[in-house]
Design brief:
About 35% of the residues lie in helices and about 20% in strands. It is built from 8 helices and 7 strands. Strands 3-2-1-4-5-7-6 form a 7-stranded mixed β-sheet, sandwiched between helices.
């Protein structure tokens, strides 16, 4: 966990809360670690719902060792905090490219409140108002699709496959129509699980090493994390 000392059940603020005030939980982030300092800055600025603060840090902790690139492209980024955490924690990340159809007001506010804690972040960050299919991707990019809604997750996967980019996904709002694969899997396993199994087979068939993990359900019920990175020829031969 990003904050291993914290008992989520003991927090005085509901981890699912959409409120932008997490002041009651602020004492739980009293340490000297960088994440604690970042959390305090975000809580004080009231720039994000408390749920999204916790979720972003936890997603980052799940994916940071498995999906790496010197450029991070956060697709359907929303506020873009997960991509920003790459730019903060990994000095070898020289660019954080945030991409969404519209630039949320929270993005400049996030950068403003993080300046005091991580002033090296801002020069790395830029924002593109673009569709997933249209954005230019650096060759060295790793892709993020964090809560890319419905079929947007599949569009992120398509970009990862076409450019052989490592990718991290936190799928949500799985489309109930047009379920990929045998309908019987959807009936037996549920739409969400059956869809993500199909996505994982798609990545695996394209020569990607895949991995599943789960965020604490106390933070989000849509908590399945899928990471994938392309295998080189030597790794492919060993895996056969």
């Amino acid at each position: 966990m990003s904050f291993p000392r914290i008992d989520l059940d003991a927090l005085p603020v509901d981890p699912h809360s959409r409120s932008r005030s997490g002041q009651l939980a602020r004492p739980f982030f009293s340490g000297d670690a960088l994440n604690d300092k970042l959390a305090r800055a975000l809580i004080d600025a009231r720039v994000l719902p408390f749920k999204e603060l916790l979720e972003s840090f936890e997603v980052f902790e799940h994916i940071r060792r498995h999906v790496r690139g010197t450029a991070i492209v956060d697709l359907c980024c929303g506020h873009g905090l997960v991509g920003m955490l790459y730019g903060i924690h990994h000095r070898d990340v020289h660019r954080v490219q945030l991409v969404d159809r519209r630039k949320p007001a929270s993005v400049p506010r996030l950068l403003d409140c993080l300046d005091a804690v991580a002033p090296w972040l801002r020069p790395k960050v830029d924002f593109d108002e673009a569709r997933i299919e249209a954005v230019d991707l650096p060759q060295d990019a790793a892709l993020l699709g964090i809560h890319a809604c419905g079929r947007a997750t599949d569009a992120v996967i398509a970009r990862a496959l076409s450019g052989r980019h490592a990718v991290a996904l936190l799928p949500c709002c799985h489309p109930k129509k047009g379920l990929p694969g045998p309908p019987t899997l959807g009936q037996a396993l549920g739409v969400s699980l059956a869809t993500d199994i199909h996505r994982t087979y798609r990545l695996d068939a394209a020569g990607f090493h895949t991995r599943w993990s789960e965020l604490p359900a106390a933070i989000t019920p849509m908590n399945r994390v899928i990471t994938a990175r392309p295998l080189d020829l030597g790794q492919q031969a060993q895996s056969l």
